[in-house]
Specification:
It is found in: Cytoplasm. The protein is an alpha/beta fold. The protein is about 40% helix and about 20% strand. Helix 4 (about 85-95) links the parallel strand 4 (about 75-80) and strand 5. Helix 6 (about 160-170) crosses helix 8 (about 195-210). The chain is globular.
Length: about 230
């Protein structure tokens, strides 16, 4: 089986070595860059299937690199940064990053997020998850007929609940900001009303999660947004 190609853009050699070893143990091929300029060269020549990008690069801010990459590359970008402010996370996601993990981090979570992005990229390459019925856990969603079942039993979702679930499915693997979800599901007039989103996420979890207080699929990214985990086609 072909190994996924990962480009790691990080200026600290110890961190690069640590992450490279973890990814290679998980069956991935890793290329490295320690500057934004080198990352552009490696991205063009190696054609990675995913990039891991630190924001604090020596020659320019990593967000500039991400914005540039988005003009010609569809490869998912996972930000790995010590910057933990909400504004940094939201800005990086809004300019094109697909996920954001703060340092320090755990290897299992890093690997899980990389795998999720690779699965999502594969789904998008094959016309995306909206081309077929999708599953997560014991939930089955038919995006064409608007039918949802759990363990084979029909689950009634309101039109708004279904639109929210469909938005999370379309963005599978990505962290979708509160504002993006509000615009997608409710429209421009609700972009600054996050309370709507919180209420509907509570009801979705009650209907679709085994334990709504400890969700495994409808995940919160604190102060940033939500993401769907564990999707299968």
């Amino acid at each position: 089986m072909k190994k996924p190609r990962i480009l790691l853009v990080e200026d600290e050699s110890d961190i690069r070595r640590f992450i490279r070893m973890a990814l290679e143990r998980d069956g991935m091929t890793v290329f490295e860059a320690n500057t934004a300029a080198q990352a552009r060269i490696e991205s063009a020549s190696r054609q990675p299937e995913l990039l891991i990008v630190d924001l604090g690069l020596p020659d320019e801010d990593g967000k500039v690199l991400i914005r540039d990459l988005r003009s010609w590359s569809r490869a998912p970008v996972l930000v790995l940064s010590a910057r933990d402010r909400e504004t940094e996370k939201v800005e990086a996601l809004n300019i094109g990053a697909d996920d954001y993990l703060t340092k320090p981090f755990g290897v299992p979570e890093l690997i899980a997020r990389v795998r999720a992005q690779l699965r999502r990229a594969s789904l998008v390459a094959n016309d995306g998850p909206t081309a077929s019925t999708v599953h997560f856990g014991d939930v089955c969603v038919d995006l064409a007929t608007y039918e949802v079942t759990r363990n084979g039993t029909p689950v009634h979702l309101t039109p708004t609940e279904f639109r929210l679930l469909a938005a999370l499915i379309r963005g599978y693997g990505k962290v979708i900001t509160y504002r993006q979800l509000l615009l997608d599901v409710w429209g421009p007039g609700y972009a600054d009303r996050p309370q709507y989103l919180r209420v509907y996420m509570v009801t979705l979890r009650q209907k679709l999660e085994d334990d709504p207080t400890q969700p495994r699929h409808l995940m919160t990214e604190l102060q940033v947004g939500y993401r769907l985990a564990g999707l299968a086609t």
